[in-house]
């Protein structure tokens, strides 16, 4: 435990357990069951007045326990009350079947809700099933009585101790990316071919313009790059250049907390890396500025567009920067630093739980997810591990962030892209790998390293993913030694499913720009307020053989017409969907079915070659009880389009083609509507849509319909396609399942 934490909790009572009246062993809670991250929700635990009357809201208390020992520190969060984190102290005791907790909680204000005060809760809970807790509580908030039910859950510890971690020494810097005693080894690495290539890319990145404004001010990151160069090359001139850029950055804050977060993160990194080279006055000037800005990013502001909602990229960027700055200042005099760190940590954990799915897919889409990650979130996670010796990645959704993008990225060397989702149809770059290599879990690292080396490392474009100067320090220190790269198919397979968000990716191989990647977003979670949400469910993407057959539309205004869907009334389009079927094969093939309001969709992907082509795709769409007899089916593409009768043909620059055949409606009306980035194929008709699409380099396989009726059988070479109710059944998938 750090000295600051002890100082901040000096008033806490000691933990004690009372034996009581010797209950029988069957009645006693096994202390081992009370181990993990424990979350207790107190119904109606906080209140505030509305039009003169008290309005009650729930508050959730977070505890960290290990058998019969709990941290004295307890934290609360009541998002319907306000957006602040509330700190308290805890005493626990055990009497028979009941676990008794006394909590003294300081209720904090947020920028919009000024109410604050003291809450005292007397809580009694018992075990219900293996990891559930139920009970009651009573207490007061600002001397007004509160009481109600308690529901709790015990989860495994999120944090994982880092092996052989060394406690932080007083005034030790650098510390955020690597530790001081690693410097001699890093200086030796600078003489290797890899080290020389990284430093050369750093020099190139330092020649780029510095932006002190815009959505991503880069001054602090440039300063950090010069500071890293100063450390590695023992060059005082580089540290002096860094000082001037740091002063310029501190004097030009971002216009909103979104932009200001990158200023703070960059200056925090520069402070840490240049600490040995700057004089005492310079160090203190930056430390004072960082302390003020950290408090600002933790508290937020009522104006200027601030968004503290857990899944928002605003929250992720600001709280990641706040946590990074707090770790830079930890143990350097300000007791409040520990509290800033804990609030930042709690916000990042909520972001990872709510905003990021269990396989790394973000609720706000690709651009809004990746940008905060490489700017502030990954740096915070790395620094937390390096400074405190606690790994927040391996047991969290953060573990899959890079593997998920490895599964979706297609290209050669550093020229990679993804079939993107969300606003601003931008693909992530090598930056997320340069900054994130050091925190990838060991079990997934061989697949990530295979991909990284192939595209940005010595076997790729030799840039090591570095775009902003500070990224050089991360890839320099984080490049793993002694890891044998393996093709990702051997590490985590060709199908990745984010069950929380409902995002499915099917890939045939990892080889080059001709790889097939197909994805579909089911949107299983109910949209939460306060962040960007997809305007639809069921949209898909198809890339392969160098063609971008089914892509996102050009616009970023959140309209379903910019997706690949059957158009529904706007009031229905943004709602969630239900997964009704899923299959997957080891070769990357699979099937997904969903229900979205009164729309049923099934997508089948076949890479087996049974159809005579490398990629076969089947879609079945049905709208039940539609108000309008005619429905509209749309698919966006970047390729050249020709239409003839019931078919459309797309042709890519690579010479590959996609041929799509509408089995139904029999009188489908097909048209192509061009746009600046390609255009969309639009089909209208009265019957459900059954579409068979083949992708090939030569002649397309013949699509043959066998029989008639509502569920026709379709033959494509040796592949048999059946439609049973609302699901597509492929012969190859059936055989694979057997």
TrEMBL record:
* Domain of life of the source: Bacteria
Q: What is this protein called?
A: Heparinase II/III-like protein
